[in-house]
Design goal:
heterodimer; A: alpha+beta; 12 helices; B: alpha+beta; five-stranded mixed beta sheet; 5 strands; 30% helix
Amino acid sequence: MIHPFELHRPGSLGEASTMLRDLPDAALLCGGTELLQVMKMGLARFEHLIDLKRIDELRGIERLDDGALRIGATTTHRELERSPLMAESYPGFVEMEREVANVRVRNMGSIGGNLCFAEPHSDPATFLLAANATLELATADARRELTVDEFVLEALTTALEPDELLAAIRLPAVRPGEQVVYRKLAFVERPAASVCCRVRLEDGVVREARVAVGSIGDVPVLVESAANELLDRSVGELEAAGERAAEIINAECEASDDINGSAEYKRHLAGTLLRRALRQVAEEAGHAGK
Amino acid sequence: MQESKVARPQVDVRLTVNGREHELRIEPRQTLAELLRGPLALTGTKVSCDSQVCGSCTVLVDGLTVSSCTYLAADADGRDVRTVEGLANPETGELTVLQQSFIDYAAFQCGFCTPGFLITASSLLEETPRPTREQVIEGLEGNICRCTGYQQIVDAVMAAAERSAS
């Protein structure tokens, strides 16, 4: 059995933050798919769990005036995969969410919980990094924003202050000619390698690009030199550019040996996944006549 | 001999299980699987991997499949829980079309994974009454069987869908 704890159910973000500050050995609980798992395994022990599921301001998906999407941190993977708003703006995000872990984890697990647990093999973290998302952190009386790479510091470690919560995730509006494409390979529940690219095409030429590689090392990383290979390339040149970008990933990306394979193998996987993602970018651009 | 009693945190839970309401005082640390299999004596739900991977512990909470091994019973407060025991007709004991199909298509051997498959497949068929074979396979991806090789399970679900439609 899990070690005994007291369960608290705050009704507001402020209340939750105050509890987090004041209660000793406390942790935030949402879907519980990570937290309860490690508690069951005896890897973590908390005297107090603070349940976030009854806090309205942490829920929901909305489109902001500038076209950006704001996702409440307690939104489940299931809600995201079925959201018409998400499907309209970020079909790649919906596809990614649809493949997270398994259906039961998606029914309970929250995107906020996934990001805050900061397990190295994370589909959402990789996607959101490439997509240039911002994360809203909050306490009872303060707010701040971080990018994904500012937030995820090390394996299982984030930049959250002791009394801070992740409140929401903001995805920038999608501009004309933009695509965000995600690819992963998973042998078990968590991805062995995950890659996401955000590309903006204008008149068939890449004007902006971001490439994120995740799951092979301790944290997801932006690979700027790989993204630079794509700049000013036409759709027809993307295949060749992808090969060079994959070589960069092989040379530069930090990876570790794990259950999915050697570091070398995982870097190779990441490079291949990027090439496949770019193939899709080219196909979509071709259909769209850009 | 002196006994020392440590006061443990408690929480009140009111939940419906297979249509029956329960009011309980439990420890917050108790999982739904522990509650179902222990005090409620509903041992149809199994615990195998205890890591949300195998699906043996699958139950429905407000219509959604969850891994009861990693779900706090306290979180079921105010909710409607369905287990494998709740599938058949409570009065007559008549099996559902799906359960009968599992028998007819030899979709179980040791039976340990079966409750989880039945709950998952029931939920799948409720949402998608006429699934394609691919949809069934995808829908059952999160449930593991070590005996059958899965084909019989997929056949049973497809047959149940067909039988329910006619």
